[in-house]
Amino acid sequence: MRTSSTLRTLFSRELERLSRIEYSTLFRMKSYEVLKTFWTSRRYSCEFLNDDNLPVPLFAVEFSKTVGGGQIIATCDEDGYVTLIDTSKSSSFGTHDNGWCSADFRENIAENRQKLGNTQNKFCTSDRPIVSFRVHENAIFSLCWLGLQDQWIATGSGDQKVKIFDINKNVIMNTLIGHSGSIKSIKERHMTDGKVLASASRDGNVMLWDTRCQGLHSQETGDSVLRPVLILKDIHRRDMNIPDKREYAPKRPRYSIRHRKNSMKPNIPHGVTSLEFAPFNDSFYLYTSGAVDGAIKLWDLRRASLKQVTAEPLSTIYPGCQEGLTDRPHGISSLHITEDGSNLCVSSTDSNIYLYKTGLLDRGSFMHLCGHTSSSFYIKACFSPDGHFVLSGSADSFAYVWDIKQSSSKSIKANLPLLRLPAHINEVTDVAWCKTDTTKLATVGDDSQMKLWQTRKQQAGNESVYETQYAQAESTPIEKEHSMPFKINRQVNRQSPTVRLDNPNTLLTYFEKPITRFCAASH
Predict the structure, then answer these.
(1) Which of 147, 364, 406, 464 could anchor a disulfide with 194, C-beta 3.0 to 4.6 Å?
(2) Which residues does 517 contact at the CB level (< 8 Å), separation at least 6?
(3) Which family does the UniProt entry place this protein in (predicted)?
(4) Does residue 26 register a pLDDT over 50?
């Protein structure tokens, strides 16, 4: 599976970045000296609240690829909202009154909308660093930027639907239906300009969608309803062939009619937690992970069809079992592949992260990372843009960073984290690394907060006033600081398509729905 230089160039061109891009001097320095300069403060934190002023958990965060210079963060939460935050505007945050906590971005939304009507991208030309809109009436578990210019955002929700939102027109373009369980992961196929994407669900199915197909027009919502063009059905059902050191001895039946009836039921489908397209071979290769069988499977989409009852994977591996670290497979929470497609990051619920060469899956992982706590399917991990580092959330309220290149040079198979970030109060669920500016990280957690981490060279003003938190070496004890971040408070009124601002005398039309009220935290 060696990637040719031509395909690499095409893939980099899709992201409007050449593969020979010069990363900042950040990664030319020693790892520890660089990573310990990451910091965050209350000014660069957002807390999400619902209309009852209750915290709203966040499930996913992702930096854009190209729009806004690749520095726009998209987050999704339990109430079905997607929030966009332009981190590039933080460069002018000289004082507290000019930061995310200020009311500057609330200045005349109607005028901004009229001014942005003829521009290519409304959000990125706006003076407002934060905007929020509701896409689903249920929790959103996954999102993905689509298109060469990040024109669309795809969201997967607990309502068993995938929706594609146009950030230029502020409308839902497509609703993708076919799943019978919550959507856990969405990824676009490379080199298709966001027209082809795949979704994974708790129903055990992976579905491939093509938005170029003609759908049914919905009179109620005005969008196009699409059906999948390809389905991989029940691909991670747990069977007796999985490696397990324990014997599968049949249990003696209980004298219970209910137990006997349940034991006669066929096996129910088991969920697919994550998926990744390989950026080579025209992106026909797809990696999927299972929640129950604990397997990673590689598929060639050219060998599957809608008429098939079951499809056969090219390869199946069980992280942890191949390495002899566990006596049984554990569920996989997330997958992430490097931009050149060489390495695959597998985050497991056994509190290990396994790294594989994409062309050598059957040989087992070349490294496993440990030191964090991950027993939840909501905790995810990702590579840095250059593939030198791995960033992961954790159940102990920290985010962890590993230097895999340094460990590889020392022939270390098991690698402890180089750094931990005192990110949150509760579990850190998702993490993201800016693709165009390696000096920026983002973390979200169960404490309903999103935090932006930057290098110290970007620090402006006296940040000590704002309870600054610094990254420290993993061996250094860290005291958790309970800061009061900027709060996003939503009040939804389904009867009126307006946005009510903090000024009660201002009532302006912006989005069709919902009504969103932004307010700064009290200090």
Answers:
(1) 147
(2) 489, 490, 491, 499, 500, 501, 502
(3) Belongs to the WD repeat cdt2 family.
(4) no
Query: DSSP characters for 476-505?
Result: S--PPP----EEEE----TT---EE-SSTT
| Rounded Cα distance, 151 and 306, in Å | 29
Q: What is the domain partition of the chain in residue ranges? A: 5-94+112-238+267-472
- DSSP 8-state secondary structure symbol assigned to residue 410: T
CB neighbour burial string for 61-80, b if at least 16 within 10 angstroms, e if fewer: bbbbbbbbebbbbbbbbbbb
Identify the bridge partners of residue 176 per DSSP, sorted by sequence position: 162, 226
127: left (phi over 0), alpha (psi -120 to 50) or beta: alpha
The CATH homologous superfamily of the domain defined by 5-94+112-238+267-472:
YVTN repeat-like/Quinoprotein amine dehydrogenase (2.130.10.10)
Give tens-digit pLDDT for 231-244: 999 999 876 456 65
- The alpha-helical segments, DSSP class H, found in 228-384 are 257-263
Residues 6 or more apart whose CB falls under 8 angstroms from that of 469 comprise 39, 40, 41, 421, 422, 423, 481, 483
> 0.85 cut: is pTM over it?
no
* DSSP code, position 211: T
Higher confidence at residue 495 or residue 75?
Answer: 75
Sign of CA dihedral 289, 295, 300, 306: negative
Q: Are 299 and 285 spatial neighbours (Cβ–Cβ below 8 Å)?
A: yes
Contacts of 442 (CB under 8 A, 6+ apart): 61, 63, 73, 87, 431, 432, 433, 434, 450, 451, 452, 453
The length of the chain in residues reads 523
Angle CA 168–169–172, to nearest 5:
110
Contact 72, 128 (CB under 8 A): no
Sign of the alpha-carbon dihedral angle for 47, 167, 79, 64: negative
Query: For the segment 46-61, what is each residue's pLDDT rounded down to a tens digit?
Result: 889 888 888 999 999 9
Task: Specify the DSSP class assigned to residue 253.
Answer: P
Backbone angles phi, psi at 350, to 5 degrees: -90, 15
CB 349 within 8 A of CB 375: yes
Per-residue confidence (pLDDT) for residue 93, from 0 to 100: 32
Query: In this structure, what token pair is assigned to residue 275?
Result: 């998926």
For residue 71, how many C-alpha atoms fall within 13 Å in the half-sphere facing its CB? 18
Tell me the DSSP string of 136-201: -SS-EEEEEEESTT--EEEEEETTS-EEEEETTTTEEEEEE---SS-EEEEEEPTTSTTSEEEEEE
Residue 200 is which amino acid? A
Q: What DSSP string runs through 68-108?
A: GGGTEEEEEETTSEEEEEEGGGGGG--SGGGSTTSSGGGS-
